[in-house]
Protein backbone atom coordinates (compact mmCIF):
# COMPACT_ATOMS: atom_id res chain seq x y z
CA UNK A 1 0.00 0.00 0.00
CA UNK A 2 1.37 3.36 -0.99
CA UNK A 3 -0.29 5.51 1.64
CA UNK A 4 1.65 6.79 4.59
CA UNK A 5 -1.54 7.52 6.48
CA UNK A 6 -4.96 6.06 5.92
CA UNK A 7 -8.39 5.72 7.51
CA UNK A 8 -10.14 2.36 7.32
CA UNK A 9 -13.91 2.71 6.98
CA UNK A 10 -15.69 -0.42 8.13
CA UNK A 11 -18.80 -0.49 5.93
CA UNK A 12 -20.24 -3.56 7.73
CA UNK A 13 -20.16 -1.69 11.00
CA UNK A 14 -21.85 1.33 9.44
CA UNK A 15 -24.60 -0.95 8.23
CA UNK A 16 -24.88 -2.72 11.59
CA UNK A 17 -25.02 0.55 13.50
CA UNK A 18 -27.82 1.83 11.27
CA UNK A 19 -29.74 -1.46 11.68
CA UNK A 20 -29.34 -1.47 15.44
CA UNK A 21 -30.52 2.12 15.65
CA UNK A 22 -33.48 1.50 13.36
CA UNK A 23 -34.51 -1.62 15.32
CA UNK A 24 -34.42 0.43 18.51
CA UNK A 25 -36.18 3.61 17.38
CA UNK A 26 -38.44 2.07 14.74
CA UNK A 27 -38.62 5.41 12.94
CA UNK A 28 -37.31 6.53 9.59
CA UNK A 29 -33.68 7.59 9.61
CA UNK A 30 -32.54 10.85 8.06
CA UNK A 31 -28.80 10.18 7.92
CA UNK A 32 -26.53 13.15 8.50
CA UNK A 33 -23.68 12.96 5.99
CA UNK A 34 -22.58 16.59 6.12
CA UNK A 35 -18.91 17.51 6.52
CA UNK A 36 -17.88 14.57 4.33
CA UNK A 37 -19.94 12.24 6.54
CA UNK A 38 -18.09 13.44 9.65
CA UNK A 39 -14.83 12.69 7.86
CA UNK A 40 -15.81 9.17 6.75
CA UNK A 41 -16.36 10.14 3.09
CA UNK A 42 -19.85 11.32 2.19
CA UNK A 43 -19.97 9.62 -1.21
CA UNK A 44 -19.03 6.20 0.12
CA UNK A 45 -21.31 6.50 3.13
CA UNK A 46 -24.20 7.78 1.01
CA UNK A 47 -23.78 4.92 -1.44
CA UNK A 48 -24.21 2.50 1.47
CA UNK A 49 -27.28 4.33 2.79
CA UNK A 50 -28.73 4.72 -0.70
CA UNK A 51 -29.81 1.04 -0.65
CA UNK A 52 -31.41 1.03 2.79
CA UNK A 53 -35.19 1.39 2.91
CA UNK A 54 -35.24 2.78 6.41
CA UNK A 55 -32.83 5.59 5.51
CA UNK A 56 -35.15 8.07 3.88
CA UNK A 57 -32.90 11.05 3.38
CA UNK A 58 -29.31 12.19 3.40
CA UNK A 59 -28.70 15.43 5.27
CA UNK A 60 -25.94 17.81 4.22
CA UNK A 61 -25.04 21.29 5.44
CA UNK A 62 -24.81 23.13 2.13
CA UNK A 63 -26.05 22.85 -1.43
CA UNK A 64 -22.42 22.39 -2.51
CA UNK A 65 -22.27 19.21 -0.45
CA UNK A 66 -25.54 18.08 -2.02
CA UNK A 67 -24.27 18.82 -5.52
CA UNK A 68 -21.19 16.66 -4.89
CA UNK A 69 -23.40 13.70 -3.94
CA UNK A 70 -25.61 14.12 -7.00
CA UNK A 71 -22.57 14.32 -9.27
CA UNK A 72 -21.44 11.00 -7.81
CA UNK A 73 -24.77 9.42 -8.75
CA UNK A 74 -26.65 9.57 -5.45
CA UNK A 75 -30.39 9.57 -6.14
CA UNK A 76 -31.84 9.49 -2.61
CA UNK A 77 -33.53 12.63 -1.23
CA UNK A 78 -31.02 15.20 -0.01
CA UNK A 79 -31.98 17.65 2.70
CA UNK A 80 -29.83 20.77 3.06
CA UNK A 81 -29.80 21.60 6.77
CA UNK A 82 -28.12 24.98 6.35
CA UNK A 83 -30.94 26.38 4.22
CA UNK A 84 -30.33 28.56 1.20
CA UNK A 85 -28.90 31.87 0.12
CA UNK A 86 -30.18 33.78 -2.88
CA UNK A 87 -27.34 32.79 -5.20
CA UNK A 88 -27.82 29.10 -4.36
CA UNK A 89 -31.45 28.74 -5.49
CA UNK A 90 -30.58 27.53 -9.01
CA UNK A 91 -28.34 24.84 -7.53
CA UNK A 92 -31.24 23.55 -5.43
CA UNK A 93 -33.36 23.26 -8.53
CA UNK A 94 -30.70 21.79 -10.77
CA UNK A 95 -29.69 19.07 -8.30
CA UNK A 96 -33.11 18.52 -6.70
CA UNK A 97 -31.98 19.49 -3.23
CA UNK A 98 -34.51 20.10 -0.48
CA UNK A 99 -33.87 23.20 1.61
CA UNK A 100 -34.56 23.50 5.31
CA UNK A 101 -36.19 26.91 5.62
CA UNK A 102 -35.58 28.56 8.96
CA UNK A 103 -36.31 32.28 8.64
CA UNK A 104 -38.34 34.78 6.64
CA UNK A 105 -35.43 35.86 4.45
CA UNK A 106 -35.16 32.27 3.22
CA UNK A 107 -38.90 31.86 2.90
CA UNK A 108 -39.05 34.96 0.69
CA UNK A 109 -36.48 33.41 -1.66
CA UNK A 110 -38.71 30.40 -2.30
CA UNK A 111 -40.77 31.06 -5.45
CA UNK A 112 -44.55 30.56 -5.35
CA UNK A 113 -45.57 26.97 -6.04
CA UNK A 114 -41.95 25.85 -5.62
CA UNK A 115 -41.50 22.43 -7.19
CA UNK A 116 -39.35 21.02 -4.40
CA UNK A 117 -40.99 20.13 -1.08
CA UNK A 118 -39.27 21.88 1.83
CA UNK A 119 -38.75 21.30 5.54
CA UNK A 120 -39.47 24.10 8.01
CA UNK A 121 -37.26 24.48 11.06
CA UNK A 122 -38.42 25.96 14.37
CA UNK A 123 -36.16 27.11 17.17
CA UNK A 124 -37.27 25.52 20.42
CA UNK A 125 -34.26 26.40 22.54
CA UNK A 126 -30.95 26.29 20.69
CA UNK A 127 -31.03 29.86 19.40
CA UNK A 128 -29.24 28.99 16.20
CA UNK A 129 -31.41 28.39 13.11
CA UNK A 130 -35.20 28.24 13.12
CA UNK A 131 -38.34 30.34 13.24
CA UNK A 132 -39.52 31.40 16.67
CA UNK A 133 -42.81 30.05 17.89
CA UNK A 134 -44.14 33.61 17.94
CA UNK A 135 -43.69 33.66 14.15
CA UNK A 136 -45.84 30.59 13.58
CA UNK A 137 -48.96 32.37 12.36
CA UNK A 138 -47.00 34.44 9.86
CA UNK A 139 -45.20 31.31 8.61
CA UNK A 140 -48.54 29.55 8.10
CA UNK A 141 -49.95 32.57 6.29
CA UNK A 142 -46.95 32.82 3.93
CA UNK A 143 -46.70 29.15 3.03
CA UNK A 144 -50.41 29.05 2.19
CA UNK A 145 -50.15 32.23 0.17
CA UNK A 146 -47.09 30.97 -1.70
CA UNK A 147 -48.56 27.45 -2.10
CA UNK A 148 -45.36 25.80 -0.93
CA UNK A 149 -45.31 22.07 -0.23
CA UNK A 150 -44.18 21.32 3.32
CA UNK A 151 -42.71 17.86 3.57
CA UNK A 152 -41.14 18.20 6.98
CA UNK A 153 -41.24 20.03 10.29
CA UNK A 154 -38.13 20.01 12.41
CA UNK A 155 -36.32 21.41 15.39
CA UNK A 156 -32.98 20.63 17.02
CA UNK A 157 -31.70 19.62 20.48
CA UNK A 158 -28.57 21.45 21.62
CA UNK A 159 -28.13 19.58 24.90
CA UNK A 160 -29.93 16.23 24.86
CA UNK A 161 -26.78 14.65 26.36
CA UNK A 162 -26.66 16.98 29.35
CA UNK A 163 -29.92 18.88 29.91
CA UNK A 164 -33.04 16.80 30.39
CA UNK A 165 -35.22 19.70 31.46
CA UNK A 166 -34.46 21.77 28.36
CA UNK A 167 -34.85 18.73 26.09
CA UNK A 168 -38.24 17.78 27.54
CA UNK A 169 -39.41 21.40 27.21
CA UNK A 170 -38.33 21.39 23.55
CA UNK A 171 -40.32 18.22 22.89
CA UNK A 172 -43.41 19.96 24.33
CA UNK A 173 -42.85 23.19 22.39
CA UNK A 174 -42.31 21.34 19.15
CA UNK A 175 -45.54 19.39 19.72
CA UNK A 176 -47.49 22.65 19.93
CA UNK A 177 -46.01 23.66 16.59
CA UNK A 178 -46.83 20.33 14.97
CA UNK A 179 -50.39 20.50 16.40
CA UNK A 180 -50.90 24.02 15.07
CA UNK A 181 -49.92 22.89 11.58
CA UNK A 182 -52.26 19.97 11.89
CA UNK A 183 -55.14 22.29 12.90
CA UNK A 184 -54.37 24.20 9.73
CA UNK A 185 -54.69 20.96 7.76
CA UNK A 186 -50.95 20.67 7.20
CA UNK A 187 -49.55 17.30 8.26
CA UNK A 188 -46.06 16.97 6.81
CA UNK A 189 -44.66 13.53 6.12
CA UNK A 190 -41.57 13.94 8.31
CA UNK A 191 -41.57 15.27 11.87
CA UNK A 192 -38.07 15.25 13.36
CA UNK A 193 -36.22 16.71 16.30
CA UNK A 194 -34.09 13.84 17.66
CA UNK A 195 -30.35 13.74 17.06
CA UNK A 196 -28.23 10.86 18.38
CA UNK A 197 -28.26 11.99 22.00
CA UNK A 198 -31.98 12.70 21.64
CA UNK A 199 -32.73 9.05 20.90
CA UNK A 200 -32.96 8.34 24.61
CA UNK A 201 -36.04 10.60 24.78
CA UNK A 202 -39.56 9.62 23.90
CA UNK A 203 -41.05 11.78 21.16
CA UNK A 204 -44.24 9.95 20.33
CA UNK A 205 -45.48 12.37 17.68
CA UNK A 206 -42.10 12.38 15.80
CA UNK A 207 -41.84 9.82 13.01
CA UNK A 208 -38.20 10.23 11.97
CA UNK A 209 -34.79 10.83 13.54
CA UNK A 210 -31.98 12.97 12.17
CA UNK A 211 -28.76 11.34 13.31
CA UNK A 212 -25.05 11.39 12.58
CA UNK A 213 -22.52 10.49 15.25
CA UNK A 214 -24.24 7.26 16.39
CA UNK A 215 -24.26 5.93 12.83
CA UNK A 216 -20.50 6.43 12.81
CA UNK A 217 -20.27 4.38 15.98
CA UNK A 218 -19.70 6.95 18.66
CA UNK A 219 -22.04 6.89 21.66
CA UNK A 220 -23.24 10.43 22.36
CA UNK A 221 -23.21 9.66 26.08
CA UNK A 222 -22.21 6.82 28.44
CA UNK A 223 -25.73 5.52 28.99
CA UNK A 224 -26.61 5.36 25.27
CA UNK A 225 -28.77 2.22 25.07
CA UNK A 226 -28.04 1.16 21.48
CA UNK A 227 -25.07 -0.98 20.52
CA UNK A 228 -22.88 0.93 18.04
CA UNK A 229 -19.28 0.36 17.05
CA UNK A 230 -16.64 2.77 15.73
CA UNK A 231 -16.61 2.79 11.94
CA UNK A 232 -13.31 4.59 11.27
CA UNK A 233 -9.84 3.68 12.43
CA UNK A 234 -6.84 5.79 11.51
CA UNK A 235 -3.38 4.44 10.82
CA UNK A 236 0.04 5.67 9.78
CA UNK A 237 3.63 4.51 9.40
CA UNK A 238 6.80 4.80 11.39
CA UNK A 239 9.25 6.55 9.08
CA UNK A 240 12.36 6.85 11.25
CA UNK A 241 13.83 5.58 14.51
CA UNK A 242 16.62 7.25 16.47
CA UNK A 243 18.21 7.68 19.86
CA UNK A 244 18.08 10.58 22.29
CA UNK A 245 20.67 11.34 24.95
CA UNK A 246 19.66 12.61 28.35
CA UNK A 247 19.15 16.39 28.03
CA UNK A 248 18.25 16.37 24.31
CA UNK A 249 15.21 18.44 23.30
CA UNK A 250 12.56 17.29 20.86
CA UNK A 251 10.65 19.02 18.03
CA UNK A 252 9.78 22.69 17.40
CA UNK A 253 10.20 24.85 20.46
CA UNK A 254 11.97 22.05 22.34
CA UNK A 255 9.05 21.50 24.70
CA UNK A 256 10.24 18.00 25.68
CA UNK A 257 13.63 17.31 27.21
CA UNK A 258 14.82 13.72 27.66
CA UNK A 259 15.52 12.90 31.31
CA UNK A 260 17.33 9.69 30.28
CA UNK A 261 18.70 8.09 27.12
CA UNK A 262 15.71 7.16 24.97
CA UNK A 263 14.63 5.50 21.74
CA UNK A 264 12.23 7.63 19.69
CA UNK A 265 10.20 7.13 16.52
CA UNK A 266 8.96 9.55 13.88
CA UNK A 267 5.40 8.89 12.72
CA UNK A 268 4.10 10.24 9.39
CA UNK A 269 1.04 11.89 10.93
CA UNK A 270 0.84 15.53 11.97
CA UNK A 271 -1.60 18.34 12.39
CA UNK A 272 -2.10 18.61 8.62
CA UNK A 273 -3.47 15.07 8.77
CA UNK A 274 -5.88 16.11 11.50
CA UNK A 275 -4.00 15.36 14.69
CA UNK A 276 -4.77 18.21 17.08
CA UNK A 277 -1.57 20.07 17.92
CA UNK A 278 -2.63 20.34 21.51
CA UNK A 279 -1.90 16.61 21.85
CA UNK A 280 1.74 17.73 21.97
CA UNK A 281 3.34 16.09 24.99
CA UNK A 282 0.04 14.50 26.07
CA UNK A 283 -1.34 12.11 23.47
CA UNK A 284 -0.14 8.67 22.45
CA UNK A 285 -0.28 6.26 19.51
CA UNK A 286 -0.37 2.48 19.60
CA UNK A 287 2.57 0.54 18.18
CA UNK A 288 2.96 -3.24 18.59
CA UNK A 289 -0.02 -3.26 20.93
CA UNK A 290 1.73 -0.77 23.26
CA UNK A 291 1.22 2.90 23.97
CA UNK A 292 3.85 5.20 22.49
CA UNK A 293 3.66 8.62 24.15
CA UNK A 294 3.85 11.76 22.01
CA UNK A 295 7.04 13.71 22.75
CA UNK A 296 7.32 17.44 22.08
CA UNK A 297 5.17 19.43 19.70
CA UNK A 298 3.12 17.74 16.99
CA UNK A 299 4.38 19.08 13.64
CA UNK A 300 2.60 19.55 10.33
CA UNK A 301 3.42 16.16 8.81
CA UNK A 302 5.07 14.19 11.61
CA UNK A 303 4.85 13.40 15.27
CA UNK A 304 7.60 12.07 17.51
CA UNK A 305 6.87 9.26 19.96
CA UNK A 306 8.67 7.40 22.73
CA UNK A 307 9.70 3.89 21.68
CA UNK A 308 11.94 3.22 24.69
CA UNK A 309 9.70 0.44 26.06
CA UNK A 310 8.56 -1.00 22.76
CA UNK A 311 10.47 -4.01 21.43
CA UNK A 312 10.72 -5.36 17.88
CA UNK A 313 9.83 -2.11 16.20
CA UNK A 314 11.07 -1.24 12.72
CA UNK A 315 10.88 1.57 10.19
CA UNK A 316 7.79 0.97 8.03
CA UNK A 317 5.73 -0.52 10.88
CA UNK A 318 2.08 0.45 11.16
CA UNK A 319 1.08 2.93 13.83
CA UNK A 320 -2.44 3.10 15.17
CA UNK A 321 -3.57 6.68 15.61
CA UNK A 322 -7.24 5.96 16.39
CA UNK A 323 -8.71 2.49 16.83
CA UNK A 324 -8.14 -0.83 18.59
CA UNK A 325 -5.16 -3.16 18.45
CA UNK A 326 -5.20 -6.19 20.73
CA UNK A 327 -5.87 -5.01 24.25
CA UNK A 328 -4.96 -1.39 23.51
CA UNK A 329 -7.46 1.11 22.19
CA UNK A 330 -7.54 4.82 21.52
CA UNK A 331 -10.99 6.10 20.63
CA UNK A 332 -12.28 9.36 19.16
CA UNK A 333 -13.67 10.02 22.60
CA UNK A 334 -10.28 9.44 24.29
CA UNK A 335 -8.63 11.90 21.91
CA UNK A 336 -11.44 14.40 22.38
CA UNK A 337 -11.07 14.18 26.15
CA UNK A 338 -7.32 14.72 25.93
CA UNK A 339 -7.89 17.83 23.77
CA UNK A 340 -10.92 19.09 25.70
CA UNK A 341 -13.12 18.88 22.65
CA UNK A 342 -15.77 16.52 21.26
CA UNK A 343 -15.34 13.42 19.06
CA UNK A 344 -17.20 15.17 16.22
CA UNK A 345 -14.36 17.66 15.85
CA UNK A 346 -11.65 14.99 15.82
CA UNK A 347 -13.56 13.00 13.15
CA UNK A 348 -14.16 15.99 10.89
CA UNK A 349 -10.53 17.07 11.17
CA UNK A 350 -9.04 13.89 9.67
CA UNK A 351 -7.82 15.55 6.51
CA UNK A 352 -8.04 14.70 2.81
CA UNK A 353 -4.40 13.61 2.79
CA UNK A 354 -5.40 10.59 4.88
CA UNK A 355 -6.57 8.09 2.27
CA UNK A 356 -9.97 6.54 3.03
CA UNK A 357 -9.91 2.78 2.53
CA UNK A 358 -13.29 1.07 2.49
CA UNK A 359 -13.38 -2.34 4.15
C1 LIG B 1 -29.27 20.21 12.45
C2 LIG B 1 -28.62 18.93 12.84
N1 LIG B 1 -29.36 17.83 12.91
C3 LIG B 1 -28.83 16.63 13.26
C4 LIG B 1 -27.47 16.52 13.55
C5 LIG B 1 -26.92 15.17 13.94
O1 LIG B 1 -26.48 15.16 15.27
P1 LIG B 1 -25.72 13.91 15.87
O2 LIG B 1 -24.49 13.73 15.07
O3 LIG B 1 -25.42 14.32 17.26
O4 LIG B 1 -26.63 12.74 15.77
C6 LIG B 1 -26.66 17.64 13.49
C7 LIG B 1 -25.24 17.53 13.82
O5 LIG B 1 -24.46 18.40 13.89
C8 LIG B 1 -27.25 18.88 13.13
O6 LIG B 1 -26.53 19.99 13.04
Describe the 3D structure:
By secondary structure, the chain is an alpha/beta fold. The chain has two domains: 11-216, Alanine racemase (TIM Barrel), CATH 3.20.20.10; 232-358, Beta Barrel (Lyase, Ornithine Decarboxylase, Chain A, domain 1), CATH 2.40.37. It contains ten helices and 19 strands. The strands form four sheets. An eight-stranded parallel sheet has the order 8-7-6-5-4-3-2-9. Strands 1, 10, 13, 16, 17, 18 and 19 form a seven-stranded mixed sheet that branches. A two-stranded antiparallel sheet has the order 11-12. The radius of gyration is 24 Å and the shape is elongated. The relative contact order is 0.14. Pyridoxal-5'-phosphate binds at residues 32, 81, 156, 195-197, 210-214, 220.
Give the termini separation: 14 Å
- Strand fraction: 15-25%
Alpha plus pi helix count: 10
Strand order in the sheet with the most strands? 8-7-6-5-4-3-2-9
Name the CATH superfamily assignment of the largest domain: Alanine racemase
Assembly state (oligomeric):
single chain
The top-level CATH class of the largest domain is: Alpha Beta
Radius of gyration: 24 Å
The biggest beta sheet reads:
8 strands, parallel
| Total strand segments | 19
Amino acid sequence: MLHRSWAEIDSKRLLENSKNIFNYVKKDILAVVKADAYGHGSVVVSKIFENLDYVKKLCVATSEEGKELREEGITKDILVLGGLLKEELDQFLEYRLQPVISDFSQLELIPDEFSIPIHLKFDTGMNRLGFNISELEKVLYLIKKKKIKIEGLMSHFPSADVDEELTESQIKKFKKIVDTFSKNSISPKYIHIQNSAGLIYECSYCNSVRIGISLYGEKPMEKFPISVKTVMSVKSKLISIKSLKKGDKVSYGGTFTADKNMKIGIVAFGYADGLPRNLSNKGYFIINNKRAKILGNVTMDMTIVDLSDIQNVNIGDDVLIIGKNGSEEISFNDLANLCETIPYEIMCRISKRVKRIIL
